[in-house]
Specification:
single chain, 120 residues, alpha+beta, Translation Initiation Factor IF3, 4-stranded mixed beta sheet, 4 helices, 4 strands, globular
Length: 120
């Protein structure tokens, strides 16, 4: 008996396969192999244009959390300030929250999700 046969038998793998034991191509298309279904998601978004603000608003409206990368827009401080103020008003209006995580990231939460901003 070879090493692969020993390993296969130890793992319970058989040489003979029944094709019907596997899902059909149609069933496989409905499976998201990367993610299990969840109620909410944390979505990373890079803030590059004003259109990205609408994407952030849509994600928050869909109850997803947003991890916003502000590096692309940080070269223009006035535009960054306006965008952050816009998002602050939006999150406040939906009873969400906003906080700077580090120099490049801002966390935004949907309604009724708050960010602990004080460290103990």
């Amino acid at each position: 008996m070879g090493i692969f046969q020993n390993l296969s038998s130890a793992l319970g793998v058989r040489k003979e396969m029944n094709v019907e034991d596997f899902m059909s191509a149609a069933e496989a298309e409905e499976v998201d192999v990367m993610h299990q279904q969840a109620d909410f998601y944390v979505k990373p978004i890079a803030l590059q244009t004003d259109a990205d603000l609408k994407v952030v608003e849509e994600e928050l409206t869909n109850k997803n959390l947003v991890l916003l990368n502000i590096t692309p827009i940080a070269r223009n401080p006035n535009k960054l300030k306006a965008a952050v103020e816009h998002l602050r008003k939006f999150t406040s209006g939906i009873n969400g929250d906003i906080a700077r995580i580090d120099e490049d990231k801002i966390m935004l939460t949907p309604a009724n999700v708050k960010i602990v901003k004080k460290r103990k």
